[in-house]
Amino acid sequence: MPRHEPSGRQDAGEPPGAKVKMRLDAKGRWVAVHPPRQTTPETEAAERPPLGDDPRPAAFRNIPPFGGAG
User: Fold this and answer.
1) In degrees to the nearest 10, what's the CA dihedral of 46, 39, 7, 20?
2) Distance between CA atoms of 51 and 45, rounded to whole angstroms?
3) Which tens digits make up the pLDDT trace of 13-53?
């Protein structure tokens, strides 16, 4: 199954604008100069409360339900 791997470029997949600023890097290659990114706040999920004991009898805890559920 493929996994998500973020691109190393800031504007991956988008066509460049009408005017692109370029500069030479340390190896002498031309690279595009990108404007600084705007950051967005991160949202963290709260911890879930602990689950209670399973109310089913011991003989039925590991058996799936009858019917099309599943």
Assistant:
1) 170
2) 17
3) 677 777 888 999 999 999 888 877 788 888 888 898 888 88
pLDDT digits (tens, 9 = 90+) for 44-63: 888 988 888 888 888 777 77
* Contact between 30 and 24 (Cβ < 8 Å): yes
Q: Please give the single-letter amino acid code of residue 69.
A: A
Distance between CA atoms of residues 32 and 11, nearest Å: 10
Question: Cα(32)–Cα(6) distance, rounded to whole angstroms?
Answer: 18
- Judge contact between 11 and 34, C-beta under 8 A: yes
